[in-house]
Amino acid sequence: MAEKVKPYKNSDASKKEQVTEMFDTISKEYDGLNRVISFGIDVKWRNKVVKIVSENKPKNVLDIATGTGDLAINLTATNAKEIIGLDISNGMLEVGRKKIASKKLENIISMVIGDSENLPFEDNTFDAITVAFGVRNFENLEKGLSEILRVLKPNGIFVILETSVPTNPIYKFGYNIYSKFILPTIGKLFSKDKIAYNYLSESASVFPYGEALNNILRKIGFINVEDKPQTMGVATIYTASKA
Questions:
Q1: Is the pLDDT of residue 115 over 90?
Q2: What share of the chain is helix, strand, coil (3-state, %, to 5)?
Q3: What is the sign, positive or negative, of the torsion defined by CA atoms of 19, 21, 176, 229?
């Protein structure tokens, strides 16, 4: 089970409430800082997710923890007729809605506020579901994954893009230096929320990855579970399906 790390350790609020507050606070700066922190490589990772989803020719796609909608926008390349971006932070969604309007994609993409652990959709609704850098923010990981399995159609594709820790000792050392010291420092210099990027770093370091997350997905009931490490293992793409 994933260790429960919260953004604000001195707060009695639930992780879900704290994550919502954090992303509302950093929503307007999130895209720019994200590009800097990842050196822009996250764009390449998202494109790989789109390629995987495209191979399944989905008619509708749900992008959970959509944030400001980057992946939802990219998923229009799949030619899906309907894409729903769901997030718990209205601040992030508002930024995403402006981006979608500027690209005139409102007829394809809708942005919905909602809880990943209580999805407002019927069983067997979506051909494809994606989560990019969001599953580690679930308050109850297994409940969130169970909800995803519920609303995914049989034979549908589920794709996770999430941070992970390199297994190579040299890469792992460099990753630890960057995530523990450099990333939080950048966050403190440029973010309104001085704690947010400490949380993003810490939550990534303790979240299950590789075979550990594969096993959780299998336990929930997903089949055809695979993991594909990216860029020396600093991120991983997971694919799974529903019987």
A1: yes
A2: 50, 20, 30
A3: positive
Kindly report, residue by residue over 203-223, the tens digit of the pLDDT.
888 899 999 999 999 999 999
Find, among 91, 67, 243, the residue nearest to 161 by Cα: 67
What is the structure's pLDDT at 3? 57
Alpha carbon distance 130, 126 (integer Å): 10
Q: With contact defined as beta carbons under 8 Å apart, do 19 and 137 qualify?
A: yes
C-alpha 79/C-alpha 92 separation (Å) is 24
pTM, 2 dp: 0.93
Paired strand residues for 230 = 235
**Which runs of consecutive H residues, i.e. helices, occur in 15-156?**
15-38, 41-54, 70-74, 90-102, 141-151
Residue the block writes with tokens 């953004």: 7
